[in-house]
Design goal:
about 500 residues, alpha/beta, four-stranded parallel β-sheet, 24 strands, about 20% strand
């Protein structure tokens, strides 16, 4: 499904409240003393820091990042708490994010200047969908969703301990309560709930709205707490339908009202769909293959507290197909902004974010100075039409004609090109080795896996160990979770019960 272009918020330091956007005039705006307000309205209401004390991970979901006041206050409280959880995960959905420079101006003179500076340095380009951002050495993981709540909330897969919710945003997810995405929306302060426009949304929007409301309950961890500002009756009704109880916990005296609710469903909803299931056993994984895929898997799992062991038949990481002398990373742009384009955009942005510092320090050979992608199918006029329709931010992608492309590259080029300012190239083997080192995983190099065996343990479904065997039938590695990252050879190792998985060889 095509995603709508991001319309940035506008920072106005003169007008009270600051952020302004075409369809969000009445959001909950923190006061000048926002750290105290955040402590009282959000942290105290969520019984923090008590509830995260001693935990491996505590996860928060917010609708409406705004200037980041709630996130910064939470991050600061987490840093100051000696009993803090090991990892703080903060998910925030924002339809109209600020530009990087506006974010800095909005926090000029802040008492949390070091945190603001780190957040500003990591602030992603304003492209739609999800942006993972590591802060505080990776101990604080911020997942920014740029787009509308009904579209992005169903994409989140997590177990949420605390919800920071803005009723103005939640009303986007109430069927029949708001107009379809992209229309002007009044705020709760501008118009009482009973006079809000009742224009029916499109069928597509209604489907996403229903999924979004249902998702709140499915995302909630046992004992989760939700705080909601800009409360209206439809929002309270929607929360109740999702399993949250708000009776007797309404806080007056706040703009639009503040409700505090606890997750207490009448029944336990099934886990989120999409093939994801929580692993309740030891966080240990056996990864077959130490190329780019295997090393990336180890890196990603390590960020969630997993210990990994990799086995590869080669003498070191990325010695087979992943060992190309150079690899490009850049986004992709198509008129319909389909899954292919969105996946490439997300992957290229993440690669640049991870590898950029390693390239700058010389740890990994490469460059982030930009990348040209020739496209002889498009005329200059047509390419600029596609670019205008996408609404992607300046600096992320642009179209350059043949003459300018030739000048940029120093070569005589046959056509115009897409210019990805954040793209570049890197040495895949060095990148894989860096990912592996950062993960802390162990590598058993020079060992071929001849077969796999699953040994049930504990007598319950899904329990047990996966064992990797060599040609003599000896166990060379074992773990409760198995990752096959060995390209076409994975088909040979799959158990017969898994059936045949569709695979084909591609270059690289």
């Amino acid at each position: 499904m095509k995603t709508a272009p991001i319309v940035p918020g506008r920072w106005d330091p003169v007008t009270e409240g600051g952020e302004r956007s075409p369809d969000r005039a009445g959001q909950h705006n923190p006061t000048a003393d926002w750290p105290s307000e955040a402590q009282r309205v959000f942290l105290d209401a969520h019984e923090l820091p008590r509830r995260w004390a001693g935990r491996e991970q505590f996860t928060i979901l917010e609708t409406g990042f705004g200037r980041g006041h709630h996130f910064l206050a939470t991050w600061d409280a987490w840093r100051r708490d000696p009993r803090r959880c090991r990892r703080l995960v903060f998910v925030s959905i924002e339809a109209h994010p600020l530009q990087r420079d506006d974010l800095a101006r909005a926090h000029a003179g802040s008492t949390l200047a070091p945190l603001v500076a780190e957040l500003q340095a990591a602030w992603p380009p304003l492209t739609p969908n999800l942006h993972p951002v590591d802060l505080d050495g990776g101990r604080v993981q911020l997942l920014l969703g740029f787009g509308h709540v009904p579209i992005l909330l169903p994409q989140i897969v997590a177990s949420i301990d605390a919800f920071f919710l803005d009723g103005a945003f939640l009303e986007e997810a109430i069927p029949g309560h708001r107009a379809a995405q992209g229309t002007h929306q009044e705020s709760p302060q501008e118009s009482p709930p009973s006079t809000h426009p009742r224009t029916d949304p499109s069928a597509t929007h209604r489907t996403h709205a229903n999924r979004a409301l249902e998702r709140l309950g499915r995302l909630a961890a046992p004992g989760a707490i939700a705080t909601v500002c800009n409360v209206t009756p439809p929002v309270l009704d929607g929360l109740a339908a999702a399993g949250f109880q708000t009776d007797g916990m309404f806080k007056a005296g706040e703009p639009g009202g503040i409700a505090v609710a606890r997750f207490a469903p009448r029944y336990t909803a099934p886990p989120p769909s999409g093939g994801w299931q929580a692993h309740g056993g030891p966080r240990e994984a056996l990864i077959i293959g130490a190329g780019l895929a295997g090393c990336a898997a180890a890196w990603a799992l390590s960020r969630q507290g997993w210990n990994c062991r990799l086995i590869d038949r080669e003498a070191g990481p990325a010695q087979a197909t992943s060992g190309n002398p150079a690899g490009l990373f850049h986004g992709s742009i198509h008129a319909d902004d389909g899954p292919h384009a969105r996946a490439h955009r997300a992957a290229a942005l993440l690669a640049a974010r991870i590898a950029g510092p390693w390239i700058a320090s010389g740890r990994v050979a490469g460059s982030t100075a930009g990348c040209l992608r020739l496209d002889a199918r498009l005329s200059d006029a047509r390419a600029r039409e596609v670019l205008a329709a996408q609404g992607l931010p300046v600096g992320y992608v642009d179209w350059v004609g043949r003459a300018d492309a030739s000048a940029l590259s120093g070569l005589s080029l046959p056509s115009g090109s897409w210019w990805f300012g954040g793209g570049g190239w890197l040495a895949p083997a060095a990148y894989a080795a860096a990912l592996l080192a950062e993960s802390g995983a162990s590598l058993q190099a020079g060992q071929a896996v001849a077969s796999l065996r699953h040994v049930p343990v504990g007598g319950h479904q899904g329990g047990g160990l996966w064992q990797a065997l060599d040609a003599q039938g000896r166990v060379i590695g074992a773990a409760p979770v198995l990752v096959l990252a060995n390209a076409l050879d994975a088909q040979r190792l799959l158990p017969a019960s898994a059936g045949a998985w569709p695979q084909r060889a591609v270059r690289g």
